[in-house]
Amino acid sequence: MLNEGVGPSVSFSHCSGMTWAALSLPESEVGIDAARPDEFEGGYPFHRVFRSGELDRLLEKTRGERNECAALVWSAKEAFVKAMGCGFHLFSPLEVSATLLALQADRALFQVRLTDRGLERFPCNSESQIEISSFRFGGAWVSVAAMDENFIDRTRPKFSCL
Question: Which pLDDT tens digit goes with each residue over 38-87?
Fold first, then answer.
């Protein structure tokens, strides 16, 4: 609350010695995340984070660089759950589906939504999906998600992220 009213939504992400922040108007929610390809090296458990075929569909568009693709998709998914008001402590990354709409060099646009399993627990409209903008900066992918009040289904009970 801010002076008896609702304040803005704020989100932060820290990556490569930089802190990113996003701020929205009170009637919307925002999430931001940054990820580097080197975070996905070694024995990273891709099967626990990315849906079947999710990375494979994007590999040809990211020049076959699996870690580059993983950083891009992960930052979009993480920005999405932050905009929902929580991180992945209430959802599995597999419950978030990211579809690439456009990719041009250092910019990307995703459409992200909850899967059916995620929808069982979160009170959003079943057709709700949001677009997430991503851009490359300093070796990392930075993604920003913003959702308005229409994303939430006010007729269903809301869970608490606390």
Answer: 999 988 999 999 988 888 888 877 778 899 999 999 999 999 999 888 77
For residue 4, being part of any structural domain is answered with: no
pLDDT at 156: 41
CATH of the domain at 58: 3.90.470.20
71 lies in some domain: yes
Q: Which amino acid is at 40?
A: F
What pTM value is reported for the model? 0.84
Question: If we measure between CA atoms, which residue out of 123, 120, 112, 116 comes closest to residue 146?
Answer: 112
Q: Which residues contact 4 (CB under 8 A, 6 or more apart)?
A: none
User: Cβ neighbours of residue 160 under 8 Å, at least 6 residues apart?
Assistant: none
CA distance 50 to 57: 11
Domains: count for the chain:
1
Mapped onto helix, strand or coil, the DSSP state of residue 69 is helix
Q: How many CB atoms lie within 10 A of CB 130?
A: 20
Cβ proximity of 33 and 78 under 8 Å: yes
Range of the domain at 136: 10-148
Helix (H, G, I), strand (E, B) or coil at 72: helix
